[in-house]
Amino acid sequence: MADRGRGRRTLSFIVDSVGISRGDSLPPAVQQPTPVFPVTEQKPLPLTGGEEAEYLTALKQDFRGAMRSLPCFIQPAAVHRDVERYSDKYHLSEQMDGLTDWIIDWKRFPKELRVRIRKPSRDGAALTCLGGGQSGQMKKKKAGEKEEVLLKLETLEKKEEQESSEEEGEGKNKQKEEEAEAEEEYDEEEFEEETDYIMSYFDNGEDFEGDSDDNMDEAIY
Amino acid sequence: MISVYKMTVQETRLCGLFLREHFGEVVEKVGTHLLRSGAQNLRTIVQETNLSVDLVKKCLCVLVQHGACLFIAGRKGPGSPTEYRACCDRILRVLRYPRYIYTAKTLYGDTGELIIEELLQRGHMTMSSTVKTVADRLTQNMEEGHSLDYSDVSSTFSKLVETHFLQRCPPVGGAGTSGSAAPAEAPATPAAPAAAISKALPTPESFPDCYTVPQVTLVGRGKRQLVPEDGEDQRNAKRAKMNSETHGDEGIYWQVNVERFHQHFRDQAIISAVANKLDQTSSEIVRTILRMSEVTTSPTATCTKPLSANEIFRSLPASYNIPRQILDQYLTLLVDDPMEFVGKSGESGGGMFVVNLHRALANLARATLESIVQERFGSRSARIFRLLLRKRHLEQKQVEDFAMIPAKEAKDMLYSLLSHNLVQLQEIPKTPDFAPSRTFYLYTVNQLPTARMLLQNCYKTVANLIERRLFETKENKRLLEKSQRIEAILASLQASGAEPEQLSEVEEMISAPEKQQLDVLRLHVNKLDSAENQVDETIFILESYISSTSTS
């Protein structure tokens, strides 16, 4: 292998027995990666249609849709848009309903995974807070609400209790994140229960901005 | 099965997409992290994924609930933290869910279909909660005033357990979950003591009660759900459902036994192959043999237990009234067929016959590979491929002669197959110095590595299909949301009894070109979904073949 022809065009296999005779042109050397959508000489066969295939497709789509509405579908935390919007307070957080719906048999899971999320019940019972004991450094997002102050007092209480049972120490960021997340969850629930208006009918009209304005002379509804 | 410990790039990518579609992006992140890094404890996962602890805990709960992740007590002795390991194979099975549900429908009707669907959606459930949920769902679709009795659903559930399509989840050792079992039923005994859990995870079948239906007191009928007036009522209704009735089977959880479904699919594939190659009667004979062997053959067996011709004759379906001599002729025909699906293992009882399961799978896989080559490269390349599969090693000249293809074209075809790695070049030296002039160069095809490679291609295909579908849906997101909102408005208007003018007014909120765009989108999505299902058929054959070679 040491002598590879020193720049001469010798091939690693003997030309004759593989089948190329002298004088035949070899295919051009490949200069770049193969194209992402190469042209195929043979067109693929069409999909097998039929009742069974359609039913299977329908089952697949239904299953996907059903999974989205189950409690095990975990939505990522809502993305904070650049400007705080009024409607943020009133978004229906459907996934919160789902979490309470899912009754886990904790005997089948390792103890460390035990996560307790309880909605603030109306008699003001304690909220089990998750995560680390960073006290006092909470972001005050919506100030001046009576329930919110109560909430914070309770969470502070709980945090002091929970600190001893904490397993790992975590970074400050993570704690803040959790608190913010936990807060967000609870805040939204509180507001849900307190307003007089039906949540599902709330529409800030923002989503219709992108619509084309053809034939829209009057209000939509 | 494909090794749990080493995942390929394509498998991980595909698993990630399944997790995203079914459980959301957060679970996807945790799941793919586990797939890539092997077994890890909670703290490491939290650190490396940069997610909050409770979010990671939630994700792990979801994954464990659905069997996508296993947990084992620390390997470094007592006191070390629990480790979590994702199961790539189990996650990949998501692709086959529609087929499982449809099979249950064909075998056990709508009730069976819904039982399997509920269990696949929820991961594992007790028998009582499954029965209640399914009864409610079926009642929902029935006419007003009709409802389904729980006992009907229970009996279908029992049938599914008897035929092994459902199995108990293995009890978690060390947690002592016999539950409050009813006195008539023996408590589930774990096969290994709790401390030995870390050695090897017991399979569900290693527990003696795996297929025992518990005694449940379940009396009642399905309940029709009222249309909720507003969000408030809906939440109240859901809370009301979480009542604390007990039925005697607490702590006993059931899951779908996918291996049993795979056995069923394998049998179906063999029967239809026989029907295609020979005729309907031969396939019925093979079907009879397989049916008789269902419970006596283990999933990894090379062939079914020998059955005598007498027994087969007695078990043929009543509609197939063929005389004994004809049956013997058919059996001889099946044994002599080059496909070797059926073999003769003895002479007693009129001849002892077996179905050669592994050989059948190998032949089905080979046919799949040949078909793939034919569709991608043309029938003459396929001829070369088939030649090399049968004759193993051939020189260039021999290929040209046997395939009866002119030299120049044969060369081009061989090189194109070579560049796609479907054909390999083997060097046989005549002299120790490997001099090119004194070495044989032989072309060869190895079925197993080629099957593995094409299986990875299939995974890549499915991942590409899913990505394209997500892309198409994202492009039209605004339009889709608008159409969903309009449908919701229409539904609520119809429920509250609106005039036709109001309905048509709402319908007109979507313009005609938008409707067309939606139709095109629907067509694309259906095509992509249907394509995924079809690729899964190929995946099944190749996976079954590959796993049969690892056990034989």
UniProtKB/TrEMBL annotation, chain A:
Disordered as annotated region, ranges: 124-221
Segments of skewed composition (Basic and acidic residues): 144-162
Which of UniProt's keywords are assigned here?
A: Nucleus
Tell where it localizes.
Answer: Nucleus
Q: Name one Pfam family in it.
A: RNA_pol_3_Rpc31
Q: From the UniProt annotation, give the residues forming the signal peptide.
A: none
Q: Where is the composition biased (Acidic residues)?
A: 178-196, 204-221
Q: Which domain of life is it from?
A: Eukaryota
Q: In the UniProt record, does the keyword Transmembrane occur?
A: no
Q: Which family does it belong to?
A: Belongs to the eukaryotic RPC7 RNA polymerase subunit family.
**PANTHER family this protein is in?**
DNA-DIRECTED RNA POLYMERASE III, DNA-DIRECTED RNA POLYMERASE III SUBUNIT RPC7-LIKE
- What is this protein identified as? DNA-directed RNA polymerase III subunit
From TrEMBL, chain B:
Q: Pfam families, from UniProt? A: HTH_9 (PF08221), RNA_pol_Rpc82 (PF05645), RPC3_helical (PF20912), WHD_POLR3C (PF22536)
Does this entry carry the keyword Nucleus? yes
Highest taxon of the source?
Eukaryota
RNA polymerase III subunit RPC82-related helix-turn-helix domain boundaries: 14-72
Q: Which UniProt keywords apply?
A: DNA-directed RNA polymerase, Nucleus, Transcription
Q: Mostly located where?
A: nucleus
User: Does the keyword Transcription feature in the UniProt annotation?
Assistant: yes
- In this chain the RNA polymerase III Rpc82 C -terminal domain maps to 155-364
Query: What is one term from the GO cellular component aspect held by the record?
Result: DNA-directed RNA polymerase complex
Q: Which stretches make up the DNA-directed RNA polymerase III subunit RPC3 winged-helix domain?
A: 369-445
**Cell compartments where the protein resides:** Nucleus
Q: How does it assemble?
A: Component of the RNA polymerase III (Pol III) complex consisting of 17 subunits.
PANTHER family assigned: DNA-DIRECTED RNA POLYMERASE III SUBUNIT RPC3 (PTHR12949:SF0), RNA POLYMERASE III DNA DIRECTED -RELATED (PTHR12949)
The family line of this record is: Belongs to the eukaryotic RPC3/POLR3C RNA polymerase subunit family.
Functional description taken from the UniProt entry: DNA-dependent RNA polymerase catalyzes the transcription of DNA into RNA using the four ribonucleoside triphosphates as substrates. Specific core component of RNA polymerase III which synthesizes small RNAs, such as 5S rRNA and tRNAs.
Name this polypeptide is given: DNA-directed RNA polymerase III subunit RPC3
Species? Ameca splendens
